[in-house]
Write a structure and sequence with these properties.
This protein is an alpha+beta fold. The protein has four helices and eight strands. The protein has a single domain, classed as Roll (Bifunctional nuclease domain), CATH 3.10.690.10.
Amino acid sequence: MIECMLGRLVRRDEADAQFLYLTEINGQRGFSIAIGVAEAQEIERVLIDEKPKRPLTHELAYHILRALGASLKHVDVVDLRQNTFFAQIALQNEAGDVLSVVDARPSDAIALALRARCPIRVAEKVLRQMSSPE
């Protein structure tokens, strides 16, 4: 698994597809993932540190995990099949032990990772399939 970061978020007014761009932290490869409007809005809220009056879905999920004594250890983009990305969220206890790995859409996983400030990792095979020098 290669650690990556959010390189940029591309929001397009009145378009169904928004885009996030992941780049290697210590490299030059990167790729985009089409995401939904709600996920793009959540990522943007985290990036600009906007606090809604009431918790929205991703913030609620994050607070539920914390209330149960779990946190995000890392999120992984693990596969690309038929133009669809697949991700997993690794949950840990307070001792840092992995409790569970949960399947997720990459957009949701990345939105949670940014909120939790945990590593975003991408499988080497996905990077090989999708990357291009920035």
